[in-house]
Amino acid sequence: QMADPFRYDAGERSRYECLGHEVQIEHIKAYVCAPSFFTDKAVIVIHDIFGWLFPDIRYIVDLIAGHGYVTICPDFFKGTDPWKTTDHWADFADWMKDHDPTKVDKEADVVLKYLKEQCGAKKIGIVGFSWGGMAVHHLMLKNPQLTAGVSLYGRIIRDSEERYDLLNPTFFIFGEKDHTISYDQIILLEEKLKQYCKVAYKIKVYPGQVHGFAQLKPEDMKPDDKPYIEEARKDMIDWVNMFI
């Protein structure tokens, strides 16, 4: 039996009134939020296993847009069902086979084209959470159009030298108490990046934090966790601001 990767019950989330709107881009639906002024800077947000409709991820999109970016969260599951809180963890490995975070290139290209042609974006960054963190790590190795990336608690899925040859600056955020990612993996990531990575990178581990910590809405935060959640989000925005 695999441990539930989220320590909070994802079914018991508070309601969230979104600030953005939904669009259809070729074969993909997406949630978009943009600032009230024109900007040629954009950020793609990649959702976790709970998908693009999940309130927490929409809150993050709105938060990033508030810092002056056209921000978009596409449905990387292409209309198929996200993981649901009622699903059984015994089935998770099979579900992951059909939802591979390293098979996101086509969708990323469609969204990049939309941001450039329809939104006038010249610099585009990417931020991803959990499943999305893995997708960000993959895309930062493959897609030079992405100026900077932030991977939040994406499991470190394979160990090969090409996994560390990032194309553009990437920031890796982890929680100290994340039981899906061992500290040894993080140490290895750091050693390998030092060896193979030719661009700016950063790894930071936040004390006492579990998997999924950085995407909580304010009313869902525990007081002890709040400073670390806010710090992680500020660090994420600072990284994006630095390169985009």
Automatic annotation (TrEMBL):
Cross-referenced SUPFAM superfamilies: alpha/beta-Hydrolases
MF annotations from Gene Ontology: hydrolase activity
Domain Dienelactone hydrolase: 28-241
Annotated Gene Ontology cellular component terms: cytosol
Chief location of this protein within or outside the cell: cytoplasm
Subcellular localization: Cytoplasm, Cytosol
Family: Belongs to the dienelactone hydrolase family.
Protein name per its UniProtKB record: Carboxymethylenebutenolidase homolog
Organism: Nyctibius bracteatus
